[in-house]
Amino acid sequence: MRRLKFIAVGILLAATVGCMKKQKESGYIGPQKVEVGERMTPEILLALGRLSDPQLSPDGGKILFGVSYQSIEKNKSCRNLFLCNTDGSGRVQLTRYAKSVNCARWSNDGKSIYFVQDGQIWKAPLKGSKLGKKVQISNVPAGVSEFAVSPDETRIMYVSSIPSALETPAKKGLDKAQAYATEDLMYRHWDHWVTEVPRTFVAELGENITPENSVDILGTDELFELPTEPFGGIEQLSWAPDSRHIAYSCRKLTGRKYAFSTNTEIYIYDIVSGNTVEIPMGGGYDTDPVWSPDGKHLAWISMERDGYEADQQRLMVCSVDLSTPETPVVSDIKRLGADFDHDCAGIVWNGNEEIYFNSLMNEAVQSVLRTDLSGKIERVTPGDLLYDFNSPFGIIPTENGVKLLTSYASLNFPTELVAVNALDDGSVSLERISHENDAIFAQLTDPVSESWQLTTVDGKSMQAWVTFPPHFDASKQYPAITIVLGGPQGTNSQDWSYRWCYRLMAEQGYIVIRPNRRGTTAFGQEWKEQISGDYIGLNMQDYLVAAKTLKAKPYVTKMACCGASYGGYSAYYLMGIHGDVFDCFISHAGIFDEAGLWFTTEEMFFPNFDNGGLQIAEFANDLTIGKHMGKTGENAWGGIAQAGAPYSKAPKAVRHYTNSPKDLIENWHTPILCIHGELDYRIPYTQGMAAFNAAQMMGVPSRLIIFPEETHWVLQPQNALYWHRNYYDWLDKWCK
Question: Is residue 680 annotated as part of the catalytic site, yes or no?
């Protein structure tokens, strides 16, 4: 029988003294003073240290990681470097810079640290527990965002940028004019205009890395992105152990073809010859390539269908023969875990025969799993551990099992470092490594969360998290919040959020229910996929089932409905159909007019698939393109390419666009707060304005907040505090 044990490991929170104090830069942002009372507040939330990017030293004895702190007064954050032993002891702060340090990596001998600061690559010696004087080793005018050093430490690849096709007046010598001009799609992404295109370059590792001594991996004038925007990073490229080859993921498309496709492929690039070999997969995303230590295998994540960004993330592997370096030979491409019905992510090799990864599982928790090259998948962290675990950054064999160094989070605390002891007998124990925010949380009482199983309107079982305020008393009454999830594909798991912080909501006296409705990703592909082409169907009924179940409890009084992005869309839609279930709504960055969004978005593949466009199988049985679009021909952007458009006659698309939230405004009668960032290009801020205007014209109590300098997310500390204060003011006004 599996045994579970939790071991708390104490650490020495040593004060930084001596030369470290001398290294403190003017403007440095460290831990913020905060008064902790009886409950958590937005100010406390913003004061928490945010741990990220742990890196195990070459000798396996120390962990390098970053912690960022926010200053409300200065309205910015800053990330600095820390070091500790693998058991958490010996924690020291390595840097006290005023500018953030990112992408910190060990040298092979463990005696130096490479990192990015202020758009350039630096190197600093590590002397015991002290970081010496940093030396700038890159001089790239366009700046460097990330890098990866080759295994033999003779070369480096780094991410920079080149000018895009988007025309600005500056290109015509008009430096004081501001405009963007284009004759093709993909002129902007979620949060920025595409004035530059990310590219990855390779150079000899020295102290003067410049564009002149660097080589563009793509080696073409075509404006392909490497890594792929908007969220791709250096994880899309991987050094082979021979330090001569690089595997990378790239969508080699531009303009309209790029806008309608998710087809990235995996390529193997030979640095010496400049030759590139493609691993032919077709279909959708192929990402995150990782070499086995011996260079004989390559693993990656793959989606089967083009145009569907939420297709199942399959774990793929192939054999690679590098004996003829200019022309690597790829063979034996196969999927590991063919019967595994969940998404895979975070590939980590353990030797040459075993792979660790993470996946969101049926309990709505993110677990660590492993497989061998035969494809047999085994779960490592069990479902009754209510934490979200990331893939390990270090794997240490033990006498009777393995120790996985990783990070985890829960609804009650943000990311911390932890060791997972997985024994051969199936037992698992945890050793907490970091304690970044223990001093704050020790003064608070943790809310309690429960996992509920609810019955949907069509008789299926749906999981939902319910979080109760600290010191909950069932004999008393409390207001409640139903969280409507973004995505639309995603999962309400145990992950911590600094925006939608459910612990913070519970600490304000609210019971919070988070249903994993149709479209969530932890419950198999069928459950996830049901929402595509049916935004307004069963998943909306799932929300109402969850809300009505909780509101029927004798300890619940009034109830709010809150969500962002697709969750904001859901709030707008539920405004028109809920009857009297909810007492107020909050919609952040929500979609109000689906047709309007189609004509203003940049990623056309997304609305095409999810808005009910024809899929390949359907299209194969119906060759009369004109029936749906009225356009034919190789270069005609009609047919399947636009079958999810508002002007499409495809049945699913027609149903979708005739059931947009805007079509239900005559039913609106419940107070609503509409929030949007003016720089949100994925869902333009005019969607929030339109919803607010509609509410005003219907005489519905409503409030509009526009953040002129924020995007799809609210990132500036003072804006974040303003967001939280308005969020709770609105809830308290209508639900307490």
Answer: yes
